[in-house]
Structure formats: structure tokens, C-alpha cells
Amino acid sequence: MSNRPAHQLRPIKIKRHYTRPSPGSVLYQSGGTTVLCTASVAKDVPPWMKGQGRGWITAEYNMLPGSTSPRKQRERGGKVDGRTTEIQRLIGRSLRAIVDLDQLGERSLTVDCDVLEADGGTRTASITGAFIALVDALRSVQKELPDPKRLPLTDSIAAISVGIVNGQPTLDLDYAQDFAAAVDMNIVMTGNGRFVEIQGTGEEATFSDSQLAAMLKLAKSGIAQLKEIQHQALGKAWPF
Amino acid sequence: MSNRPAHQLRPIKIKRHYTRPSPGSVLYQSGGTTVLCTASVAKDVPPWMKGQGRGWITAEYNMLPGSTSPRKQRERGGKVDGRTTEIQRLIGRSLRAIVDLDQLGERSLTVDCDVLEADGGTRTASITGAFIALVDALRSVQKELPDPKRLPLTDSIAAISVGIVNGQPTLDLDYAQDFAAAVDMNIVMTGNGRFVEIQGTGEEATFSDSQLAAMLKLAKSGIAQLKEIQHQALGKAWPF
Amino acid sequence: MSNRPAHQLRPIKIKRHYTRPSPGSVLYQSGGTTVLCTASVAKDVPPWMKGQGRGWITAEYNMLPGSTSPRKQRERGGKVDGRTTEIQRLIGRSLRAIVDLDQLGERSLTVDCDVLEADGGTRTASITGAFIALVDALRSVQKELPDPKRLPLTDSIAAISVGIVNGQPTLDLDYAQDFAAAVDMNIVMTGNGRFVEIQGTGEEATFSDSQLAAMLKLAKSGIAQLKEIQHQALGKAWPF
Amino acid sequence: MSNRPAHQLRPIKIKRHYTRPSPGSVLYQSGGTTVLCTASVAKDVPPWMKGQGRGWITAEYNMLPGSTSPRKQRERGGKVDGRTTEIQRLIGRSLRAIVDLDQLGERSLTVDCDVLEADGGTRTASITGAFIALVDALRSVQKELPDPKRLPLTDSIAAISVGIVNGQPTLDLDYAQDFAAAVDMNIVMTGNGRFVEIQGTGEEATFSDSQLAAMLKLAKSGIAQLKEIQHQALGKAWPF
Amino acid sequence: MSNRPAHQLRPIKIKRHYTRPSPGSVLYQSGGTTVLCTASVAKDVPPWMKGQGRGWITAEYNMLPGSTSPRKQRERGGKVDGRTTEIQRLIGRSLRAIVDLDQLGERSLTVDCDVLEADGGTRTASITGAFIALVDALRSVQKELPDPKRLPLTDSIAAISVGIVNGQPTLDLDYAQDFAAAVDMNIVMTGNGRFVEIQGTGEEATFSDSQLAAMLKLAKSGIAQLKEIQHQALGKAWPF
Amino acid sequence: MSNRPAHQLRPIKIKRHYTRPSPGSVLYQSGGTTVLCTASVAKDVPPWMKGQGRGWITAEYNMLPGSTSPRKQRERGGKVDGRTTEIQRLIGRSLRAIVDLDQLGERSLTVDCDVLEADGGTRTASITGAFIALVDALRSVQKELPDPKRLPLTDSIAAISVGIVNGQPTLDLDYAQDFAAAVDMNIVMTGNGRFVEIQGTGEEATFSDSQLAAMLKLAKSGIAQLKEIQHQALGKAWPF
Questions:
Q1: Banded model confidence at residue F127, pLDDT cuts 50, 70, 90
Q2: Strand E157-165 to C183-190 pairing
Q3: Max alpha carbon distance in chain A (Å)?
Q4: Cα dihedral sign for F90, F95, F100, F106?
């Protein structure tokens, strides 16, 4: 298990424009976890949104078979498993929370988060990386948007995990820590420090008020750092 | 929309032994929401648990087609939708948090939560009702358990929703309130006041620290009342 | 096994308006069998019927997991099993036989028969209860029908099982009787005493002309009683 | 539409040993309907029958895409449709009614009825042809049966349709007659004149006692003729 | 295993108009392999081709359960297996190679190849038989085609297998030869001697340049004979 | 479209050990096509191979949604499409042709080829990259093999596409060339110059003997170069 201090993030590397076919394409690495986030834009919306002039954002999440040891079976049998469904719904909701869908026009953005290596925190890495891919994808169609002078974003967004490991509140759990954690929490926050999602689960365990407070505090400091890292990665493309 | 005070639960009715085939069978009504919770016991466990001497608890959630207006399509096409999957995983985790699985022996409990009428809060009603069905199902096999002198329960459990509706923290959202809410949170807590799950979601919105605190406070008071109502329904069968 | 006389129906209880979201909602209990029949109306028809000005009626049948002991697995795997398919097709055909589809306008009625407790005769209970739910659902849209002065019904309908148990023709088989029966027959008849369906099956057995005649006689007397019970339950809503 | 007299069967042709891989292989033609019935034997039984020393018989029914005009879509989408399911369950039950499963040993017979040309009456042709294929398949393993001196058959079996067409009771409906029929009935009977199945359906219509009696009388005369035709086709292989 | 000379085709029998509902219906037998090829015509095209004035040809391939010993399981589970998919794509591409789709108008031809008996070479028999069924189906709509004076065919087409069996290049492998073959090759050629498909596979083996040349030579001589046999079967209907 | 000479390969980059969880992990880039090939080893074999002491190799192929523009839909609906099935069967057969399965012991190797960027030739890139991943995966278990002194490989393997573009035989088609090609051929050959697979398809076109000869010649020269590139990438790990 990691011997990082309990309040420290794992080292992060970000490569923008990692692949060519998608306008947003970010390779996001956090310790032993690597996610390829690609963002695509299409000029249509789901049937239930047609004619409203608004856009939509959806996300898909997938772990490549070689991303774990032993190999993970491919999800092709017609049933997307429950964990996958939960994660991709979470990513989608998180991104929609900071996008002004009215300013997208009738466009769909799809963000695909394909995990190349999994060592814990794949859903939070997906959200943090997806924001960067989203910015690049929005920039690729900026000129065609209702208001081409600004990107239709109200805030930035990032996510981090936090938990109680060996009785201690701990930031950014790797796989071994996650496995050992009594409580596991994922926090999605905006760059301005507002909550988008809190998902805390006692894994056959429970937690107290004070433990909750300690975890939230750690998470906020982690999110603040992630915002800086996103800002650096985007450089002049940072939209605020 | 309801004109209950924002801190008040909807009226609750509970019928135990509602149907005969399952040892636990509870009709749980909260306002316009009615859930039939049945708990069954089988003398085996999933393949990955065999030979460990421990038990397992799993839950399934379903809305009957006539539970909503317009009619809800039956989930038979081979894809259980994402929302259903999330809810039944939540119910299962919540129940496992307060059961001593080692004291079950190699038994599987399955709790089925079938929604007969849906008016918001079906997942929290399912958990609160499922606890009662679980107690009755455990009592039906108590004599065969490793320790027949006590039920293998470490605490009771209940759940409630809370949200921000028209800017105001509000307890126990009905469908109209849930639809109007900017933030929607489901809290699962034990009778002793410890958290099992916190799931808070800004629906294309965000929330602040103080809003989070206000919602948690409301939820705690609601859970305390639900514990009393569960206690009354179980009467002498209350296991603590 | 029951010690009813072989020509006597099991006791029946009927609750109309059992749940609120559907215009027709009937809890139908016959001995240890309980079916919730809900009837919904939608203002469209299947694609192959569009533009003809006629309506359509379809039915779905389902057993809740807790309706049997041991628990019945939920049909979610994408394959609706053969027995379920047969039963819901039978219910739909039976209802269509007494409805004047031309007088419905382009409307679809869906009748859902969800079995809460199963002790034999679930398909015949479904049909008998569904007729009552159908009447209530039709009344809820009566004012909008092509001819608002009358309901578009040509007759009432009910169904009962009959069989050869221990060599004796027997009415209204419960589960134990059905299991023991050499021949199992389901009869659907109108209130005016005309046949809609006869489905008789030797279960790895055969039956003679005289046995057939004896079973048909029993069934007719049972159906006549069911018509009276339906009439009482509907009271002034009885449409003839 | 056919101008046969209403009480006359369509002309029938039977080819045994039509294909080589299956021990029973019968091409059964009745008017414009052609079914290839093949019967295979395997030395195992379904899991729920293991260790009982008994055998099992199951049937599958399928219409080839070119058997109808316009072409019928192939059932490959994972959902076997309701009609197909009903028919293959009917064929299986009918055959099991005249086989002594105890005398099969732990063997499974599978009878496949693949319709090459469809002009009404495919299910009854399947049963009548399947009996012949079954006899040939049983003969191929006769020496290995518990009692090799006789085939494990208690009777022969055949099936025919009957209906009310233009108000007249009519035997052996072709497609045009079936389409026009107000009532449609399929009768499965043994060579000794006992009923195995009666399935009568008013197609959005109803029928009276006397109509039922007239249809049953026609069916019996048709079944008696079919028995003679089966006997001729089997020649010395006729097992009684 | 066959004792044919290695360069000789198996005996071939062809029956046109084998069944009535489809305009093209050919029973094609090659040794112990029998395929029923039916060709249907519909007056529409797939959505992605609408409005172009061109037609389309597609093929489906299926082995009947009784076509092999032991019985082959029916492909109904929602997954068409890989081998089936490959074969039906091959048949479709082969036929499209010699049809002038522009001269079809907006029509779809579907060719169904249902294997009644399988003894090797079912895919090549399917193609060779399908060509004849295709000609008959095209003739049935010839008067409605853009140019009714000629069939929209640029060439004939046939297919044959060839392989290395016991070190020797061998034509037209039956099942036993195919099983023993180190290399297995299917060749699709036009009547004018041009290649449409070459699919050669070392089955856990490899092959040299000279072996390839020998196999191609054998295949060409086989295809030339098949063309003559097709010509005879079609007689005056031969379109060139 | 590319202005490479028609006989020249696209530039190739290979990174071994690209991800950590799988023992073989190769990022293979050829022009605008990038495939991640990961090879995993498990200590079991499919049921039909148990107890034979032999191993097995299987492959899966997948295109990531962001690998094409417009985005490619994820294959999750329960139907793996025909093209995917064909490709992954081809990769598996190709690898098995050069592995001595008897010397693997009862082990399964799974090679996953996930396409990150698609610009033509993804199946041939998958095979060429998979060989390198396979060598690394075999080396990771070499000590446990029946003969730990050598890898169980009989030859190397690589694959390349070739076609007729604008009438000219052309090596290594990119997407634009493939789209324009009248004939498209994929050749799999061993390092020693023996064929494993030839798959040549006239896309609604045909080809002559001399065109076939020209394409085979180009393919051989391409494969020879690929062997050198594989050798360099593996360096001392080259197994021959």
C-alpha cells in the first residue's frame, strides 16, 4: 500500500490531444490509474430534446480488459453491469452541472472515459480528465455556438475520492487503500468550491458526523489542487 | 405540491405479514408511495462465497407498470435500466451494513421491493420497509442460526430523502417536490445515528457547505422518527 | 389440499380503486391467490393499427418474486418465459372478445396482472379481475369515446379452471390440486354463456368425451357465479 | 380459398428418412403446408431430471424465412416470439402424453419441426409428422432401452385443426380459411380416441355449446383418418 | 473418408421451384450436403440506401438442428455465432459482385440458405445454389425492372472449397476431409473466371507459394464445372 | 489520400510495456492507426480442452468510440457485430498458427486489441502488434512452462493489407485508400514466408490472376519489413 501522507494526492500527468479523431482527447494519469477521455460533438440531440434549441452531454465509462490483473472480462453480453452504469451516469451529471446547455444549441457532446490502467479512483480521474477534454471539444465548435465569444461553461469541475483507511481519513485512495477502506466517498466539486455530488458509502460499515466532516475537509483541499493542475494543463485554453 | 411543513414526514402506514408465501412481507406506505417488501431465505450463497460459513443479503427493486401515470413500461427487454440498478444496489448495501453476515450461516436473504404506487421517495421507503421484512424473515429462521439466542443484527436502519426546494431545505420529497428540487439527497442511517450512505446530487445545479449542513440536520430528525415507527410496527419483534 | 366440495369456488374478495395512479385498479383475491389488476389508457395504438380509428387492448402478466415459496426468480434476462407469454396472450384475447374495438377510438388499453400471492388459478383470476379493472378504466374515458352514452362492451367475461383430480372432475383448482391433476382445463366464458377460450391439457395423460363433458358443466356453473360476484363488485358501474 | 368439402382433409404426402443425420426424419406435406420433422436422441437429460432413470422429450418449432410470402423474418434477436413458444410447448406436451418416459432410460429426444412451406395448420402437421419421426428415432435406440422388446409408446398421436368459417364447422383449415375463421380450434388426440389437448379460441368472437360439439365431431373423424395415414407410412414399423 | 479422386467434384443434384412461397427456391445437393436456397424480393431498401434508386442484396445462412449428428443447437439466444455471421456476409458479398444494383430499382433481394444436411462445403454450396435462386427471383420481377429486356446480372457466380489433405491438394472437401485438412480454402469465382473472394486459412498450420498455386488451379477447374451444372439447371433461364 | 509510393509501408512506432497490469502490453502505431495490444495469461483453459495438457490462445478486438470521426458507437447491446467477430477470430487463428499449444501447459492467453485511433489496417496492425505482446506474455511465464528453456513459438507472424487502388496494386492501405479500393486483401504470413491467411475480397468487383499475383508480391515484401521491425522492437527478447 502507498506510503504517501494521508492528505496528499498521487502524482498526476496530463496529455492533451492524445489521439486525433476526437476534438477533445486527454490521457489522464493519476498514480497507477490511466484514463483516456475523448470528447466528441454531434449536431443532434436525443429524441426527447428535439426542437428545444438546447444541447445535451452524455458520458460512457469502460475498463479495458487489460487494465486490471487478472484480466477483466469485456462487457459485451448485452448487460452493462451496475457499477459501470452508476459511474457513467455520475460522469454525465457532473459535466452537465457546469455546462450551460442552452448555449450549446442542438448539439450532443459524448465523453468517453476508457480506463487503460486501473489502480483505484478511476471514476474521479474520469471526471477530472473529462473536464479538460470537454473544454477542447467545446473550443472546436466555439465559432458555431449561439454566443461564440465565450464557452458555455459556468464553472470548472473535478472529483476526488476520500475514505477511512485503518481508522484514518485518507485522500485519493489507490486500489489497495480502497479495498481496505471502511468508508469510501467520492466528491465532485466545482472550481468555485460548490458541491455537485457526494457519494459516501460504508462498506458493511458505518461512519459518524465527525468522520464525515474530516473527509469533506480533505476532499476540498484535494479538489483545489486538481483545479490548479487542470488550469496548468489547459494553459491559455482555461475558460475563466 | 404538498403543503406539509418542510421538516415533517408524510403519514406512514405499515402492514406486516401482508402476503403469505414469504416469511417477511411488509406493505409500507408513505403518503402516495406504496412498496411491497418481501424477504425470502434460501439455504445457499452465491458461488464466490461458498464454504466460508457466511451469509449474504441481496435486494431487487421494481416499479409495477401501474405504479405511475402514465403507465411505466415493464423492464423485460434484458436491460435493467441504470436507475433500477443503482437503487437495488443501494438497498442491498444498506441492509448488509447492519447484519452480521457471519452469524447467518450459509444463507441468502433476498429482499424484493416492488413499488405498487410511486409518489417520490420509493428507494428510501424500500429501505425503511425492507428492514422490517428482514427482521421477520430472520425470525423465521432464528432457531437454525449459529447463535439462536439473538438475531444477527447490529443496529436498525432507515432512509429518507431531503432536498433544496424553492431554496428551502425540505424533508421527505414527494414526486412534485423531487421534480422541482435543485438538490436531491438520500440519507441512510442506523437507529444509533451513524451514516451508512449519503448520496447527494445537484440536478444540473450545485450546493454549498451550509446547505449540506441544513439537509443533514433535517435528515437526522426524520430518521429518528422513522426508527420509532419501525419500532412500533415490530412491537415485541423489535430486536434490540 | 383443500376440502372444499369439488363443485365449489374458493372464497373471493375484490377491492376496486386499490391504487391511485391507474384508472382501473383491482385487488382480486381467490383463496390463496391474489392478483393486482391495473388498467391504463393511452391515446395511441400500435403502428400497424394507426389511422383505422379503432382501439386495441393488450395485457401483461407477471408473478412477483415473493408470490411463491420458494421465491420465484424475476424475469429480467431478456427472455420472457413461455408460460408467461401464453398467459398474457390469453388474457389479452379474452378481453378483446368482449370489447367493441371500433368504439374505443384510437386508444390502447393495457391491463397489467401482477400476482402478489400464487396458489393456483392465477391466469383465470387475472381475467376475472381484469374485466372489473377494464370497466373502471373505460368509465374514466367514457366521455371522450365516439359514443359517450355507453361503454364499448358487448358482454362481461370471466374465467375458471377445472380438472380431473383423483379421478374426479373438480372446479377451481388450488396449487396442490393443480399439481395432482391428470387433466387441467381453463375456460373463458362470457356472462351470456358463450365460450371464448377452451384450453384443456392432459398432463402426460389423456381424457375421454364424458370427462370433457363433466368438466365443461362444472366450469359453466362456476362462471355463472363469478358473473354475479363481478356484478356485485361493480354495483352501479355494471355496464349492462 | 379451397373448395374442398368442409369435412375433408387436404391431401397428405409423407417421406420417411428424408435426411440422413437424424435417426427420425420425416417430410410431412398437407396441401400447401410442408414440415420437416427430425428427431434426435441424446444420452442425457435436463439437470432437473438427472438420476431418476427417466427420459425426456422436447420439441422445437420454426418457420423458415422462405416458407411464407412475404418472407418471414428469422427469429434470431434473442426473443422467441409468443406464437412459436406456444406451439413448441404444445408439440412437446403432445408427444410426452403417449411416451412412457420411464422406459426411455436417461435419454432426451428432441423433435425439430421446421416449416418449409406454410399454408395453415403448421402446428397440427408438426405433431402428426413428429409422431412418425419419433417412432423412427425410438427404433434407432430400441436395443439399448430398458425393455428392448417393445417401443416405449402407449398410443399413437395426431392433430388437426377445425373452425367455424362463414358460419360452417370446417375441418383442416388452410391459411385463407384460418384467416377468415371466427373460431379456431386445434385438437390433439390419440389413435385410441382420447383427448390430449383442446385449444379453442374465438378470434374476437365467441362460440356456443352446439358449435363446440360440431367441431369436436369433425375433428374426431379427421384424426381417425390421420391415424390410418400414419399407419401406412410406417408400415411394419407401426408399433402397435 | 471419400475415395473420390482429389480433383473431382462430388455428385450434384439441383431442384428448382422446390417450394412455392418464394419466387426463387432451389434445393441444392452436393454429396451429403443439402441446402435449401430461397430468394425473396421486397419493394424497399435499408434506410441508408433510400432515395438512391438502387437495390440491395443480402443473405442469411442457417443450419437446421437436424442437419448434423449430433444435433446442432438452434441459434436463438440473441447471439448469432461468429461462423454464421462470416458465412452470410460472404454469401451476400458474392452475390452483390455480379448484380448490377443500379438496375434493380429500390428493391431488396434476400437469399436464405438453410442447410438441411451438412457434410462439408455448406457455404460454397450455398453460393452456387443461391445464384440459381437469384436468377429465378430476378425473373419474377423482370418486367418491373428499369430495363425489362435483360436481367441485371454482369456474370454468373459459383464457389468451391479446396484444401491440403494428407499433404495433397484436394477439391471439394467433405466433412471428414475438412476436419483432416491442414489448409482450408474457399474460392468464389465468376463464370468468366475472375476472383470474387479468396479465403485461405492454415488451421494451426501454414502453406507455401506452390501449395497456394496448386489449390488455385484445382479451384478454377471445379468452378468451370459448376458453371456448366448451373447452366444446365437453368436451361433457357440462363441469363447470358 | 496518402502520397506514399504504392509499395511503401506507413511509418511504424512500437512501445512495449505500455501499461502495467498485463504482462504483454504493446502500443502499435502505423501511420494514423494506433492499437493497444495487451496479452494476459490465465491458468485454465476452456471447458472443452480440460485435461489435455494443452493451452489455448484467444483474441478480442474492439474499436474505442473516440477512435473514429464521427464517434463510433460502443458495442454493448449484446450483439457483437459481424466485422468485429470476423476480425477477432482472424487474430486468434493467426496467433495459434505459430504457437506450440502443447508446450503451453493448461494455460489460456488472451490478447486484447483495442484500437485507439483508426485510419485503415486496424486488423493487420492488431496481428503484428499482438505478436510482440504475445512474446512478452510468454516470457512472463516461461519458467513455469513444460520446457522452460525455450518459448513455445514455431515462427514469428505479421500481417499487412494490400489492394487495387485506382487500378494499381498498393501496399498498406489507409482509410481513404481502403474506401477507394476495388479489391481489398489481408495477408498473414510467418517470418519464414509461409502463408497463414489470405483474405481477398472484391468489393462489388472482381480481380484477375495477374492482379492476385501482383498483390501477393507486394504483401510479401511488406511482411519481410514488418518482421525486421518486430525484431528490433523485441531486441534480445526476439525468440529465434
A1: very high
A2: unpaired
A3: 54
A4: negative
**Chain A residues within 8 angstroms (CB to CB) of chain B:** 78-80, 82, 85-86, 89, 93, 96-97, 101, 155, 185, 190, 194-209, 212
Query: Who among F85, F101, F208 is closest to E194 (CB)?
Result: F208
- Look up cell 410511486; give the residue: B118
Give the Cα-Cα-Cα angle F63, F68, F71 (nearest 5 degrees). Answer: 95
Question: Which residue ranges of chain E lie beneath pLDDT 70?
Answer: 1-2, 77-79
Q: Which of E196, E207, E215, E216 to mutate against chain F (most F CBs within 10 Å)?
A: E196
pLDDT given at position D2: 61
Q: Please name the member of F20, F40, F76 whose beta carbon is closest to the beta carbon of A75.
A: F76
Determine contact, residues A152/A100, Cβ cutoff 8 Å: yes
Q: Chain A contacts of F36, Cβ < 8 Å?
A: 64, 66, 116
Q: Which residues fall within 8 angstroms of residue A156, CB to CB, at 6 or more apart? A: A98, A131, A190, A191, A227, A230, A231, A239, A240
- Which residues of E are less than 8 Å from F196 in CB distance? 201-202, 206
| The pLDDT of residue A48 is above 70 | yes
- The list of chain B residues with pLDDT below 50 reads none
| Residues of chain C that touch chain D, judged by Cβ-Cβ distance less than 8 Å | 78-80, 82, 85-86, 89, 93, 96-97, 101, 155, 185, 190, 194-209, 212
Task: Report the complex ipTM.
Answer: 0.94
Q: What is the pLDDT of residue C3?
A: 77
Query: Quick check: C29 and C13 in contact, CB under 8 A?
Result: yes
Query: Are the Cβ atoms of E202 and F197 closer than 8 angstroms?
Result: yes
Residue that is written with C-alpha cell 377445472 in the block: C162
Cα gap D151→D142, rounded to integer Å: 7
Identify whether C169 is preceded by a cis peptide bond (ω within 30 of 0). no
Residue of chain F minimizing CA distance to A60 = F74
The CATH code of the domain at F12-237 is 3.30.230.70
% of chain C with per-residue pLDDT over 90: 92
Position A1 scores a pLDDT of 52
Provide the mean pLDDT of chain F.
95
Considering only CB atoms, which residues of chain C are within 8 Å of chain B? 19-22, 25, 32, 34, 36, 38-40, 42, 60, 62, 64-71, 74-80, 110, 112, 114, 116-118
Among C187, A227, E54, C71, which Cα is nearest to D212's? C187
Query: What percentage of chain F exceeds 90 in pLDDT?
Result: 92
Convert the pLDDT of each residue in B57-73 to its tens digit.
Answer: 999 999 999 999 999 99
State the pTM of this model: 0.89
**Residue ranges of chain C with pLDDT lower than 70?**
1-2, 77-79
Nearest CB to B80; choose among C22, C39, C76: C76
* Polymer length of chain E: 240
Helix (H) or strand (E) holding E157: strand E157-165
CB–CB of B204 and A82 under 8 A? no
% chain A with pLDDT above 90: 92
User: What is the spatial distance between Cα E122 and Cα E175, in angstroms, rounded to a whole number?
Assistant: 10
> Considering CB atoms only, which of B101, B199, B204 is closest to A97?
B204
Of A40, A64, A80, the CB nearest to F71: A40
pLDDT at residue number D33 = 98
Q: How many angstroms away from the CA of B182 is the closest CA of chain A?
A: 11
Q: Amino acid identity, residue C152? A: P
The ranges assigned to domains in chain F are 12-237
Strand partners, A15: A27
What does F81-140 look like in DSSP terms, one character per residue? -HHHHHHHHHHHHHHHTTB-GGGG-S-EEEEEEEEEE-SS-HHHHHHHHHHHHHHHHHHH
